[in-house]
């Protein structure tokens, strides 16, 4: 075990492990600023989190369309799905300030258990290969089981093969607990 951890540490490269791009389409300046501020709060030099407005759910302040249903006053945001279109609507007179409502809604959307850089790193780095909310030896076992193969499982740099580059990226995200 100690040899494995030493090898994992030796494989680490300095510098950023990549970036996480979050696809969201905020409508209006207030929502765009709130989303950018929320993403900046979970961004780190090792894993910068940026906004990509080319896709993802539409974010609106208030209901959308002429038949928008009124908000329950106790609800800060709600999810509306119609076919393949996802829309997160924020209550303009809700119980939370817009910045907090955006963080709460995005935490649910991104599967973060907390709005922290550590939670973002686990959820967005791709190194949590078994999806249990931790980057640990179980994830390393999955990566090593696929080492040398052409597969997407364990392919952290998305070059269609699991190799030393993926091991280096994993080692930057791994934390011994």
What's the arrangement of secondary structure elements?
Layout: H1 2-10, E1 20-23, E2 25-26, H2 29-42, E3 49-52, E4 58-61, E5 77-82, E6 85-90, H3 98-110, H4 117-124, H5 137-145, H6 164-173
Helix pairs in contact: 2-3
General shape: elongated
| Average pLDDT level | 83
* Overall tally of structural domains: 2
The oligomeric state is: single chain
Q: Give the strand order, joined by hyphens, for the main sheet.
A: 2-4-6-5
Q: How large is the count of helical segments?
A: 6
State which percent range the strand residues make up: 5-15%
Organism: Deinococcus indicus
Keywords: Signal
InterPro entries: Dockerin_dom_sf, EF_Hand_1_Ca_BS, EF_hand_dom
GO molecular function, one term: calcium ion binding
Describe the protein in words:
The protein has helices at 2-10, 29-42, 98-110, 117-124, 137-145, 164-173; strands at 20-23, 25-26, 49-52, 58-61, 77-82, 85-90. It is of the alpha/beta class and 177 residues long. The protein folds into two domains: 20-112, no CATH class; 125-173, Type 1 dockerin domain, CATH 1.10.1330.10. The strands form two sheets. The protein has a four-stranded mixed beta sheet with strand order 2-4-6-5. A hairpin with a 2-residue loop joins strand 5 (77-82) and strand 6. Residues 1-19 form the signal peptide. InterPro entries: Dockerin_dom_sf, EF_Hand_1_Ca_BS, EF_hand_dom. Residues 115-150 form the EF-hand domain.
């Amino acid at each position: 075990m100690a040899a494995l951890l030493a090898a994992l540490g030796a494989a680490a490269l300095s510098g950023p492990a990549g970036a996480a791009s979050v696809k969201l389409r905020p409508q209006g300046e207030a929502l765009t600023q709130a989303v950018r501020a929320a993403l900046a709060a979970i961004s780190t030099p090792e894993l910068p989190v940026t906004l990509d407005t080319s896709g993802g759910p539409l974010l609106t302040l208030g209901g959308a369309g002429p038949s928008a249903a009124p908000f329950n006053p106790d609800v800060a945001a709600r999810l509306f799905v119609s076919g393949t279109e996802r829309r997160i609507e924020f209550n303009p007179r809700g119980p939370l300030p817009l910045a907090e409502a955006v963080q709460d809604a995005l935490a649910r959307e991104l599967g973060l258990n907390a709005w922290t850089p550590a939670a973002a790193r686990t959820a967005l780095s791709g190194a949590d290969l078994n999806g249990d909310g931790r980057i640990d030896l179980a994830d390393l076992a999955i990566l090593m089981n696929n080492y040398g193969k052409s597969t997407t499982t364990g392919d952290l740099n998305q070059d269609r093969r699991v190799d030393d580059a993926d091991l280096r990226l994993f080692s930057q995200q791994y934390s011994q607990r």
